[in-house]
Structure formats: structure tokens, C-alpha cells
Amino acid sequence: ATKMATLPRAVLKWLQSIPVTPHCARRDFSSGYLVALIFCKYFPGALRIEAFDEGQSLDRKLVNWGLLRKFFKDHCILVEEDLIEGTIHCKPGAAEALVQRIYTMLTEKRLPPIAPDFSDFSYQCSLPAHARATIASAIKSNITTSELTAHPDLEQQQRAIEDIAAMHATLRADQREFSPERFGITPRGPTGHATPVGGATLR
Known about the structure:
Blueprint: H1 9-17, H2 25-28, H3 33-42, H4 58-74, H5 81-88, H6 94-107, H7 121-126, H8 135-142, H9 145-150, H10 154-178, E1 185-186, E2 195-196
Antiparallel strand pairs: 1-2
């Protein structure tokens, strides 16, 4: 399983004061309902919480986030689309990054900068080579069923798959460089050529 991102203590205390108490940020914020609760607190009367559904079906999520997108536009609130999309589809770290973005916006308090990566690339890099995902499992882990349903455009899906394949190729290249014996290659000899186990020279 991918290592779970966590929310800073200051953000958790802020959420509890609203009150919003997520048990699992990735799942609980994906519907948009809790996000609506936060903005209802700061913009009383601008949102009707009764218009939002707590359900986790993709249809309900899209309706909720459609209302939130309109609210953001009407009030000139900048919430990056990749944070919204990542949160809807439960991408690793997306909900946590979204909540921290909202926290700094509404409280005007600072947090350490984060560089959200909604793939499991960092997690895969932390694993030993033998435990890393195959390209098939990498695609399965990084493209959710809900994304395919929400974005049926085949060209867009193909681009996403190509991005994941490129990520996987980078990991494999690193493995070949740092663990050549796993690929039947001995370290480079004095001629600068790598030789496979068995003696033939690869040119």
C-alpha cells in the first residue's frame, strides 16, 4: 500500500474548531462535503450545506464539486484544478494538499511548502528494487476507475498512461544503474562496456 500522507497538527486543530473531523482525509474530503462545511463557516449564507450530499458515489462527488467550483469562481477563490481532481479521485496526498491550501488561504497562516505528487512515484522509490511495481500494477495504482469514468476521452487516458509508463521507465533505468546484477549485467569493466553474466559484451 502507498504510504499515507498526514495533516499537520495545526491544520487538524483548525479543522476540529470548525468542526470538521476527518477519519481518513483521502476518503472523507473526496466528496467535497467537508470542504463545503469549511467554506460555510467562513462564508455564511454563500453556500447552502443542504445542497451537498455526503455520499461517496462518483455522481454525487461531481455534483458537489461542481457547486464548489462555481462558488470558487463567484468569489474569486483560487483552488488549483489538479488539487480538486486529485481529491475527487483519492490520489495519494491530494486531499491533504488541498486542505493545507485552504487552511493557508482562509487563516492567512503559513505552513512549510509542499510539492504535491499525486502518484506513488516517491513511495516506489523508497522500496527495495524487488518490491517495486510492474508497469501493469503501476498503471492500476495511479489511474483510478473513477478517473476513467469521469474522463472517458481516450486521448486523455492515453496521455495519463504514457506519463505513468515514463515514470516506470525512470525507475527501471535507476534499477539497471544501481543494481545491474538483477538484469544479468555485471558492472562496467575497464573498457567501459557492461557485460552480461556469462561473458558476452553488450555494445
